Amino acid sequence: MQFGTARLDIRPTIRIALLAVLATASLARAVGMIAALRAGNEEPLLAFPMTVVFPAVLVILLAVMPPARSREGVLMRVGTMIQLLLIVMLPAFGLYLALGLPVVFLCVELFETRLPAAVRAPIVKLLVA
User: Fold this and answer.
1) β partners of residue 68
2) Which residues touch 62 (CB under 8 Å, ≥6 apart)?
3) What average pLDDT does the chain have?
4) Residues 128 and 75: beta-carbon distance below 8 Å
5) How many Å is the Cα radius of gyration of the chain?
6) CA dist., res. 19 & res. 67, Å (int)
7) What's the confidence (pLDDT) of residue 65?
8) Which residues have a Cβ under 8 Å from the Cβ of 48 and sit 6 or more positions away?
9) Contact predicate 82/18, CB 8 Å
10) Is the whole-model pTM more than 0.70?
11) What is d(CA 69, CA 61) in angstroms, rounded to the nearest whole number?
12) Contact 77, 9 (CB under 8 A)
């Protein structure tokens, strides 16, 4: 891990792709919520703030954060954004995904320390600018 003046960030194309997936998933959940309300089911409306709005705000905040000092920090941001997107897209598993958030950090640590450089380098090159 290096601490210097170099700053690393998420590649703009990855950031845009993650935000596009967020917008699509949120819109799909909103349409489903409206359809459920028309059918007389209030449950999706009551769950919407915690299963769509809150994770969406967190994804947006992670997307606009300033560059990180380490590659691990950027990878953890991307992993957390993906985990939050999964919470929006898979509401039935939202609680398990939220409770499993520390697994993202463990996976990044294992990725950085145990994966061979030949496998790790292309993935990092794809995600980190």
Assistant:
1) 8
2) 77, 80, 81, 84
3) 91
4) yes
5) 17
6) 17
7) 94
8) 29, 30, 33
9) yes
10) yes
11) 17
12) no
